[in-house]
Task: structure prediction
Amino acid sequence: MRKMKSNLDERQELKLLKIEHNGCWIAFWGLLIVMLIQMIVGNDSIKNLAGEWVVFMSLALYLSIDCVRNGIWDRKLKPNLKTNIIASSIAAVLTGIIWFSVSYRNYHKLIGSIATGIIMFVQVEILCLLVLMIFSKIYKRRVQKLEEDD
Result:
């Protein structure tokens, strides 16, 4: 298949890339918010969330793997322990609150719901921190390899 010539000049190409970038992130965060709302209101069966979950995870994996492969971490954040702890803590707090809400909605037991929220908080904190640390190491190796190749 032959690649077609672009009808856009450099300014339009940059503008289009910015539009596509914003659209990608709107889709990413929109899918996450929709799934969280569905879980909180009780529409959380696997068949109701499967489509959104597959698209969300595909997008998350693609963005993560391709950015690390190309030596890109973030515009503003550094891949260090402090940043990784803050990011995993935010994810853990949100997950703990959501699972507390879901558990309380389903069982109406305050102590059990608090325990569920705390357990999910701890699990997500540890898992997310571990994944971020692994990705940080892979990213640093990749950047070093890319710099050596240049």
